[in-house]
Specification:
Helix content: 25-40%
Strand content: 25-35%
Order of helices and strands: EHEEHE
Distance between the termini: 9 Å
Largest sheet: 4 strands, antiparallel
CATH architecture: 2-Layer Sandwich
Shape: globular
Structural class: alpha+beta
Oligomer: single chain
Length: 103
């Protein structure tokens, strides 16, 4: 399995509209990536820790694909559209992490 994380860092003035993301972007991403071998996609709205410390990120999105090859094909095909959609729910440029997953 191959995984990508899209991390939306917190910071002064950073915004992330969770409701818009869940209602609009998440279904769009699912629809566009499913034909390319998407296994799952989910999002985490980051919250303060048990000690009350503010989170370092606003949200973290996890996307799982069957393989790196399938992910790379999907990314080449749909990433421009999905990245162009980011300003509809956030003013933060996401940081991407990619890698193979071991169970």
């Amino acid at each position: 399995m191959f995984r990508m994380h899209a991390v939306f860092p917190a910071g002064e003035g950073a915004t992330f509209d969770w409701d818009s993301y869940v209602k609009n972007h998440l279904p769009l991403a699912r629809e566009k990536m499913k034909p390319h071998g998407l296994i799952s996609i989910n999002a985490q709205r980051c919250a303060p820790g048990p000690d009350g410390a503010q989170p370092t990120n606003l949200a973290i999105v996890t996307i799982n694909f069957e393989s790196a090859e399938r992910f790379n094909a999907a990314f080449a095909d749909v990433a421009p559209e999905l990245i162009a959609h980011v300003p509809t729910f956030s003013n933060v440029k996401p940081i991407f992490h990619f890698g193979e997953v071991a169970d």
